[in-house]
Amino acid sequence: MTGSVKGSGGARTIGQLAEKNSSRMSSDQKEVLNKKHNDYRDKKDSLPVKGERIKRPKGRPWYTSTNDVGSMTPTQQQNYVRTGKKNG
């Protein structure tokens, strides 16, 4: 898949259009855009002053099941779905 830009005054690709637009900008404008783009790298921590990180529990994620339905026979699975008990 190739991309082209229509009505761009000679630019055939998006990269050429970006180069054309950036050549029209002053160095001050480029510096402001570059600073805005890279500001997140200078931040040490994005937490508020009194904030603290939440410690994640070590162990199985909440969405994993504790039962072994996959290892049951089809009859045991049907009984488990009906009654909610593994044996019975």
How would you describe the overall organization of this protein?
There is one protein chain. The chain has helices at 14-24, 27-42, 74-83. It has a domain at 1-43. It is elongated and about 75 Å long. It has 88 residues and is an all-alpha fold.
Task: Present the secondary structure layout.
Elements: H1 14-24, H2 27-42, H3 74-83
Task: Label this structure with key terms.
single chain, 88 residues, 3 helices
Number of strands: 0
Query: Spans with pLDDT under 50 lasting ≥5 residues?
Result: none
Mean pLDDT: 79
How widely separated are the two ends?
59 Å
Structural class: mainly alpha
Summarize the structure.
The chain is mainly alpha-helical and 88 residues long. The chain contains three helices and no strands.
